[in-house]
Design goal:
The chain has 11 helices and 11 strands. By secondary structure, it is an alpha/beta fold. The chain has 2 domains: about 160 residues, 60s Ribosomal Protein L30, Chain: A, CATH 3.30.1330.140; about 190 residues, Beta-carbonic Anhydrase, Chain A, CATH 3.40.1050. Strand 5 and strand 6 form a beta hairpin. The radius of gyration is 20 Å and the shape is globular. This is Carboxysome Shell Carbonic Anhydrase catalytic domain-containing protein.
Length: about 350
């Protein structure tokens, strides 16, 4: 079903039904066993720093089970590990993984379009070179904090070509491994190619990164097999009709539904305003109906009681803050704004609306 063209209330109902189905599947015995088996075979933890653009869905693009990759999103994939909250979250994540005996790979991503530069990253004004330079700066920050030896934490710059959902891995000497240039026949060569590209990456890390590359080859083949009609063109252009602020949006696997903003930047107003501008442009161009858009805030919690109460207050704050920004900068758009505030039980992926859904 093409949800983009439905009335806003139907889109909102569809969204929460999707969240409910995702949570139920995540909690199922089979899904739990699949995740446990995957992690026992591939213990390296993989975190992904990526743009708020809804097309950047690395688990789908790599055929990776839900719940394996840890996402961090912001406008254009712009991050600064000096930001107080972001630095604390990343350090806590690494410490938690290392304490359980796991290494960590950070996929530091940028994205672009081969077919049309204007389908690239609006956050960098479609300047792919600038986006790559920024990801390299993030890599240096990760090395400054966690060490440049890479025995435990490995920062890997990774491009994402949105027309075919293809990954491009960057080595330190300027070489790249472009999955779009390979085919299924090259699957057996991925391991030596990866070893040549990243000779300083521990063998276990490379072994745990390989399934993502195998999955991406399969996904690229699937994308290419699709008939490229007008509908496919729409799928790779901006058609977002919701702004998600916070964390816990793994259930959004449909492309171009949402612009997802992590709560990391000290200046949250900038990505919120940029996202609102994209939504307004989508409405003006007729890519989505003009009857409304959704502002959804979500904060995860690990424990009931104090942790959940804190998450609820934080989610309410994010929702109110974003609404104020949109009302101030886009008053006409704000008139069609539908707001929902939620918390997420991280262990069960149960999505809970705070104060009802009306």
């Amino acid at each position: 079903m093409d949800i983009h063209g439905k009335p806003i209330q139907q889109r909102i109902d569809w969204l929460f039904e999707l969240a409910d189905r995702h949570g139920a599947n995540f909690r199922s015995p089979e899904a739990w066993l699949a995740r446990e088996r995957y992690l026992s075979e591939h213990p390296t933890a993989i975190a992904v720093l990526k743009c708020m653009d809804g097309r950047i869905n690395i688990p789908v693009a790599t055929n990776t089970p839900v719940g394996i990759l840890m996402p961090f999103r912001n406008l254009g994939g712009m991050f600064d590990l000096g930001w107080p909250h972001l630095g604390e979250v990343l350090a806590h994540h690494v410490q938690r993984m290392v304490s359980s005996g796991r290494r960590v790979i950070f996929l530091i991503t940028y994205h672009f379009s081969t077919g049309d530069p204007l389908r690239g990253c609006a956050g960098f004004a479609y300047d792919t070179a600038a986006a790559i330079a920024h990801t390299c700066a993030i890599r240096r920050q990760v090395e400054y904090i966690f060490g440049a030896g890479h025995a435990t934490v490995y920062p890997l710059v990774c491009g994402f070509e949105t027309d075919e959902d293809a990954l491009i891995l960057h080595g330190r000497d300027g070489d790249t491994l472009d999955l779009a240039a390979l085919s299924g026949d090259d699957r057996a060569t991925l391991e030596p190619r990866l070893a040549a590209l990243l000779p300083d990456m521990p063998a276990q890390m490379r072994a745990d990164l390989l399934p993502l590359l195998h999955g991406n080859l399969e996904h690229i083949a699937t994308v290419r097999a699709q008939v490229r009609r007008d509908e496919r063109t729409l799928d790779i252009e901006h058609r977002e009709w919701m702004i998600c602020l916070g964390r816990g949006f793994d259930f959004l696997h449909t492309p171009n539904i949402a612009l997802i903003i992590g709560p990391y930047s000290p200046n949250l107003a900038e990505p919120i305003g940029r996202a609102a501008g994209i939504i307004e442009a989508n409405m003006a161009a007729g890519r989505v109906p003009g009857d409304g858009f959704l502002l959804l805030a979500s904060v995860p919690y690990d424990e009931i009681g104090v942790d959940r109460a804190r998450a609820e207050l934080k989610s309410r704050f994010l929702s109110d803050f974003a609404a104020d920004v949109i009302r101030r900068e886009y008053p006409d758009l704000a008139a069609s704004m539908h707001m929902r505030t939620a918390v997420l039980d991280w262990r069960s992926r149960r999505f809970e609306i705070v104060g009802g859904r009306a």
